[in-house]
């Protein structure tokens, strides 16, 4: 870079940083500010004004130009002013801003610029409307009160920058109130699309003690850990040669050695720095994707464990412990029931022996009584064994679902990946990585070609001057120039749904799983429920039959005292055996009721248990936090690539319609670079939620 080559100050960039960052720091007189490498001195401040106005005046050390910086909303007075801006009332702060402008102009002379953010943007625009001779620049300005802006005026001295994620300006536009923001309006690609970043998306800057202008993404030491820069002025694209913003058109420059050197230097610094930042964002994205890829088995296993836990522990009944594997707890309860039945049946046989063998003295005085409940015990036992078979079938179904169907939840995608979401993003990102390398190499070659062309200009000029001085003929020399290679970016068949891919895949596989669960699990549970209810009825009938024995033991005839005594003893023995037989039956009935209620709860809560699996599947497909970080990183990379395309459109414009063949060749290469940047941006855009 020749030392004689000069650059224009990027005034709008400086003014936006002054408005969005320095305006809120409450600098004092004689403070020195460093803004984009330029030095400013604070020559005047006005704080704590009754109207709420906060402002300062700074002078650029290099140019001597004076700039007034208005602060945005900072206290209750400012909030009151914000409310008044929605009406026809002219707030006192608007008048105070005009008064401050007049005071500074009277004290220091010509005021070149005014700038502000939010409410400070409104006061800036009010001054710009009243004083068309001053350049006014705002970042995300508030409205002016109704009646201040003349719809027949263009207000070409006013420039408003709207951050792409700023809620205030988007709301103003949506409500059709943009006619109360005078002058030009340009959207810039700064900020992070997240609710928690509303404040910095609006002011364009962080206000940290160390002055850093980035948010940390991810956890330190973890894949994907990095930062995203948010300073708004870095997204204001300006002409390399004039320093003027590119949004309202560009001024054609002369193509000569000096201007080619400026282009070379700008490509090596500004463009390289921004693309390196985009590369860093994409590198972190790839780290996240590769990390998720490496954790595939763990993600599947964790989802299987969650599935198991949902049906074993979430119902709150211990009988379902192990239901997805062995079903031992449930089977154990059935075995206990069988034990109770066997006990009760044995006591009933003993009861029948007593009933069938009364003392001889009582035979002619009592009715013959017998109980026949064997068939009831046989039925109950058969149903319990049927439930054991149903439990076995249920555990087999759960085993199938966990070990076969859960892994299938991950399958799909363009290449039928085993890990559909991660696999498709990874496949797409491998292509992005290769294409980014191509664009970077193409840009390096283009930068070298610009340098070689500038050198050729200089050598030819020197040779021509020497020939004129010596009065000899001019002989053009030769110089090695970087050849042009063709860089065709690789197309990607992946991520056609963009990051909706995960949602679409989740919807699809969850509905399939839900259908399978309702089809395979619920019918078994309903069958078990019905069989348990049947067993309850059988046990109730059996218990009633046994209890009814005592009502059928009646003594009749002329009974002597000895007979009566024998009957009483006989009756007591029967009662004892009845109680003995009823005890295990009551326990069995209570156990059956408890098991049935547990199954009832599982059936009742089955829809909830199934629906509760959805967020776990979502997390297993791709960790939500990592997925969102992918979106943040790629959105930031896309915004840089959009900015770079704006710069290259201007480069193409500057190199177009030139007569020299070398410049035509440069123009063609610049068009190819622009085209490839657009293709790369589209591919990166696919890995965002927008």
Main features:
AB_hydrolase_fold; 690 residues; coiled coil; two-stranded antiparallel sheet; 3 domains; Rossmann fold; 58% helix; alpha/beta
Quick synopsis:
Keywords: Coiled coil. Helix content is 58%, strand content 8%. With 690 residues, the protein is α/β, with parallel strands linked by helices.
Describe this protein's structure:
The protein has 690 residues and is of the alpha/beta class. The protein has three domains: 226 residues, Rossmann fold; 162 residues; 215 residues. The strands form two sheets. Strands 1-2-3-4-5-6-7-8 form an eight-stranded mixed sheet, sandwiched between helices. A two-stranded antiparallel ribbon has the order 9-10. Helix 8 runs antiparallel to helix 10. The longest helix has 51 residues.
Number of domains: 3
From N to C, what is the helix and strand string?
A: HEEEEHHEHEEHEHEEHHHHHHHHHHHH
- The strand line-up of the biggest sheet is 1-2-3-4-5-6-7-8
Which structural category do the helix and sheet elements fall into? Answer: alpha/beta
Shape: elongated
Oligomer: single chain
Largest sheet: 8 strands, mixed
Cα radius of gyration in angstroms: 43 Å
Number of E strands: 10
Task: Classify the helix fraction into a percent range.
Answer: 55-70%
CATH architecture heading of the largest domain: 3-Layer(aba) Sandwich
What's the CATH C level of the largest domain?
Answer: Alpha Beta
Put simply, the count of helices is 18
Could you name the ranges where pLDDT drops below 50 across 5 or more consecutive residues? 1-5, 75-84, 360-367, 471-476, 554-564
Can you tell me the CATH topology of the largest domain? Rossmann fold
Beta fraction of the residues? Answer: 5-15%
The average pLDDT score comes to 87
First CA to last CA: what distance? 41 Å
Coiled coil: 377-404
Keywords: Coiled coil
